[in-house]
Specification:
Number of helices: 14
Mean pLDDT: 89
Shape: globular
Oligomer: single chain
Number of strands: 11
Strand order of the largest sheet: 3-4-1-5
Largest sheet: 4 strands, mixed
Low-confidence stretches: none
Length: about 375
């Protein structure tokens, strides 16, 4: 599975790396509401939640469908401003129908990739939105009803909520991390200019790459695509918004392990990526994680791993220990080796196999990072 952005024919200058105060606030609010996703932020989350005034904490809980399970496109601006106020000013320019439709991306639903009517004008969509919000809790259901019955009033309420977050905690955060994010965006922009998009994507995340694909018509023409290695499928084009073609990359200091991709119909694609740091593990390819889980799913291979975790063993030793033939052991070993789970070395005329304990120890975190990405 993967997400794909078709950028065929897109001028290089339309690929933009820039920080966004609103996107960073959205990432921070997500971390506050889902601390289990961000163990490295545990101290910050605990201290910030403890310092929130009760009224602000209650309002954040009420509106958390905008950032908890999935990130609303409203929080990922394609043309960010230098300040939160500028980002919020741009948000105010979106018409009510589009604003409300974007606000209620409550779940990671496949409906996101299809055009759907606004809940302000379609009774069926309105009922669906209310049902999803009710499952999130009574406060979230009340927020949804207010948005559907008085969108103008709730938009003013929401802007005030974000401004209060800036005063309470986000202003200090942005003064601290905004410089780092701007520096990362400048570095990526310069790398794009000097080395091209393929190398820039690789430097942004190992879960991103550039792909050239033949169109299959036999004409010899090809397309250029940005591929995101995620457990989801989505396709869009850099020309989704004809008035403003391009792709926007937003760095975040709160994002890991998420690689957030906004690609609603008619909206310019936006990708929020975590800024790399030495303490963050590099993302494992999802195909490799799946291959390793499948390799361990066989009961005999699990038994072999138990023995190989204790030390190196030859094929003959394993065959004798488990009462199976050497060719059978070799087939199981080949599967484990292809998945990168064992190390093999030669000692004289013997080939010895041993479980790679570090790789196995990382498997749980690789899986978790993959499903959260």
């Amino acid at each position: 599975m993967a997400n794909v952005i078709d950028i065929t024919g897109l001028p290089p200058e339309r690929v933009v790396f820039t920080p966004s105060p609103l996107a960073e606030l959205g990432a921070a609010l997500h971390a506050l509401s889902e601390p289990g996703h961000h163990p490295g932020l545990h101290g910050w989350v605990t201290a910030t939640n403890a310092a929130l005034k009760t009224d602000l904490a209650d309002r954040l809980c009420e509106a958390d469908i905008l950032w908890r399970s999935s990130r609303s496109d409203l929080l990922l601006p394609a043309r960010p401003g230098a300040t939160l106020a500028e980002d919020l000013d741009e948000l105010d320019k979106i018409d009510d129908e589009r604003f409300v439709a974007a606000a209620f991306e409550i779940t990671c639903s496949p409906r996101y990739t299809r055009p759907t009517p606004s809940p302000l004008v379609d009774a069926g969509e309105r009922a669906r939105i209310r049902e999803m919000a009710a499952a999130r809790g009574p406060r979230q259901a009340a927020f949804t009803d207010r948005m559907l019955t008085d969108p103008d009033g709730l938009r003013v309420w929401l802007r005030r909520l974000f401004e209060d977050c800036e005063e309470a905690f986000f202003g200090d955060i942005w003064r601290r991390v905004g410089i780092q994010l701007a520096a990362d965006a400048r570095h990526k922009t310069e790398l794009l200019r000097r080395k091209g998009l393929a190398e820039t994507l690789s430097a942004t995340s190992r879960a991103l790459w550039l792909e050239e694909a033949q169109d299959g018509s036999g004409s010899g023409s090809s397309s250029t695509r940005i591929v995101l290695d995620k457990l989801a499928q989505g396709r869009t084009t850099a020309f989704a918004d004809p008035a403003d073609p391009g792709v926007t990359f937003l760095p975040t200091s709160f994002g890991w392990p998420h690689l957030v991709f906004a690609h609603a119909q008619g909206w310019r694609p936006v990708l929020q990526y975590p800024v790399a740091s030495p303490e963050l593990p590099a993302p494992a390819a999802l195909e490799l994680v799946q291959q390793r889980l499948e390799a361990l799913g066989h009961p005999m291979r699990m038994q072999l791993c138990r023995t190989l975790s204790r030390g190196p063993h030859s094929t003959g030793e394993l065959a004798e220990a488990f009462g199976i033939t050497s060719p059978e052991v070799s087939r199981h070993i080949a599967t484990l080796k292809k998945a990168g789970l064992i190390q093999t070395r030669r000692r004289g005329r013997y080939v010895l196999h041993q479980l790679d304990l570090q790789v196995v120890a990382r498997l749980g975190s690789d899986f978790l990072e993959g499903v959260l990405r």
